[in-house]
Amino acid sequence: MRKTMMPGHLSDRLHKIAMMVGAVIFAIVCALPFGIGGGFIGGSGSAFAQTGSASQNGAVVLSGRLETAIDLTPFIRSYVDKSRHRSLREILALPDQSFAPSEHIPSFGYTQDIIWYRMALSIDAPVSNQALFEFAPTYLDFIDVFLFAKGDDQPVWTVNLGDNIPASARPYKGGTHIAALPPLISGQYEMYIRVQSNSTNMMQLKLWPSNALITSLTYRNLTTNVFFGLVVTLGIAYFTFGLIARDYVVSLYGCWIVTVGAVVAIVNGLVLSEISPEIPWLNDFLLSETNILSHAAIAFLWLYITDIRKRHPLIFKLSCCYALFVLAFTLTGGGRYYTWFGTYVVPSHALFMAMMCLFLVKRLIEDIHSWLNWAYLAVLAIPTAAGITLQLVHSGWIDATPLRIGLHQYTLVLHLVGMGILMAVRLFHMNSERLSISRQASETTTLVEEQRKLISMLSHEFRTPLAVIQRSAEMLMLRLKGGTRDVMDRLERIQLQARKLARLVDIFLSKDGIDNQELSLARELVAINRFMEDFVANTTREGAEIFVTCHDTDGFEAFIDETLIGLAITNLIETSRRFAHGRPLHIQVVRHSSAMVEIAIPCSGPELNDDEIRLIGDALFRQNMEAKSMRSALGLHISQRIVDAHGGSIKLRDQGRLGIELCLLLPCEETGAGEP
Questions:
Q1: SUPFAM superfamilies, per this entry (predicted)?
Q2: Nearest CA to 84 among 437, 336, 381?
Q3: How far apart are CA 35 and CA 389, in angstroms?
Q4: Which of 241-276 are b and which e, b meaning 16 or more Cβ less than 10 Å from the residue's Cβ?
Q5: pTM (two decimals)
Q6: Backbone angles phi, psi at 130, to 5 degrees
């Protein structure tokens, strides 16, 4: 019998798979920096064919014509001058054991120490064609080269290179440091190289035939310029799109793309080749500033991607402080402070990114059905591993190999392509949402227009019966002119209420009122005391008595629409009656100030709890009411609109255990004489 897998079992299996995949990827992120060797790309100097050979004493043997490039890096020995004051003569006097060989590219991290390199050359026969030395990386500040015939204490050839050397003082202008091998007779030679740099201090040395170097530099310059142009264009596009969509994270991502692209381009010699700066510190300054900005930007982006703000607020705050601390190094302008940045901040940043990958894996485990989490894991984890590798190499924590140094550029391209695909998917969803919202807005507009037409029809239909009621009341009053007072009072009340209702229909159900949200007021100058007494007389009824007391308001008059203000007070009273359960209401009319009168309506009862008070407050003071507030206190919202139109206000006053007071404030003026 065929077995079916239950959803619960499937979910458990997916969780296990997600945990395994996440653990493997996180292990790769952590282990990749230490596990990548030099066997794939170049290794310890096999990226270029070596036409020279090594003698028994470790010297590079050159003989005759140089056909292809030679990687001289494996033949270099190094010495660290921690005192930073040793002279060339003192270095020459050091024993051979003072210079240590390296299995990989000699690298010493970010240091202000001076590094001396030594290499032995054996010329069996003079080199017949032009040969050129290439010193890398390009961001080394000073590279002083001295070539000695073995046994001599005076150099036969010296040259000064480095990005702190003005372009006019360098032997060859371009994006890398090049010096020509001088004509040498057969014999033994020793080359000493003094290197000083605020950036990470490492050395790669190659000897090229001139035509091969020209071909290589042409290709490298072309790819660097094309890469930088594409990256800048892409970054500007993301930045502009983020501003248009008001998605500032996308704008920040665009800034990061520009900065990291600039770092890669500067490292590959873009500034040295295209700008050819005469200012000694320009290349150093641009590299340090863009590198620091890229570190700060990626820290903020990781906080957004992992959604730490909602999940771990404390970690989010600490991480923001860390990112701001990284950003603060831009104020240093490079120099020795950039060495501190590389020594302490860069390794901590590698640890930070590893932690962010762990949070990404954790988020995937929590929601394994989200394709976005899987996409983030694929697009971010691999480039992050390469980035961590490069940071640890530059900091001197792991050995430098061509693969570890160059891998980041390829994974960066992978990341940009992957994020481009994700952005295209996001744009597609945003466009779908925009079309859906536009369609809903069109449907809503149509519905509102239909409702307005319906309301206009209803207002017309309401006016007819109201007019009939009013005329019928008038006719009955004429026919029953000699009737009892009780009957006449009831007819007058019917007539008054019909007139008020017709007025409210004209105000609230007219097309102008709906379109403009403005009330058409029919104001009159009314004495406050008389108005309140008439209002209470017309509103009070058996089982729902209302009493009013006026305090120091004689002679106060208000310019109001009696019908609308009466409706506003009625709504407040009805709210109070919901909790009074038949108890009489005692309204207090007091003088609030020389230009304001307060009508206070008490509201209390066992059912008046905090939730009910919140609903009343929402109806009075919020523009967009909740559905529950709309159902239970729509009249209060209308009251607030009416009072606002008169220049007054409604306040909710807390009376403690006695409940609350609904206070209506109306502007008024004192006539100077009391009422008769």
A1: ATPase domain of HSP90 chaperone/DNA topoisomerase II/histidine kinase (SSF55874), Homodimeric domain of signal transducing histidine kinase (SSF47384)
A2: 336
A3: 10
A4: bbeeeeeeebbbbbbbbbbbbbbbbbbbbbbbbeee
A5: 0.62
A6: -75, 130
Q: Rank 49-63, 381-395, 659-673 by mean pLDDT and report only the highest.
A: 381-395
**Averaged over 512-538, what is the pLDDT?**
76
184 alpha carbon, distance to own chain's centre = 60
Residue 269 CA to residue 275 CA, distance in Å, equals: 10
Q: Which of 206, 207, 192, 197 lies closest to 79, judged by CA?
A: 192
The span from the CA of 366 to the CA of 125, in Å, is 69
Question: Which residues fall within 8 angstroms of residue 274, CB to CB, at 6 or more apart?
Answer: 175, 225
Look at 197 and 513; give whichever has higher pLDDT.
197
Answer whether 70's CB lies under 8 Å from 50's CB: yes
Tokens 């394709």: give the residue: 371
Secondary structure of 266-325 as H, E, C letters: HHCCHHHHHHCCCCCCHHHHHHHHHHHHHHHHHHHHHHHHCCHHHHCHHHHHHHHHHHHH
- Which segment, 17-21, 245-249, 471-475, 642-646, is predicted with the most confidence on average? 642-646
Cα-flanking dihedrals φ and ψ of residue 486, to 5°? Answer: -65, -45
Q: Are strands 585-593 and 546-551 parallel, antiparallel or unpaired?
A: parallel
Three-class DSSP labels, 585-637: EEEEEEEEECCEEEEEEEECCCCCCHHHHHHHHHHHHCCCCCHHHHHHHHHHH
Give dist(CA 390, CA 393) in Å, integer: 5
Residues 102, 78: contact at Cβ < 8 Å?
Answer: yes
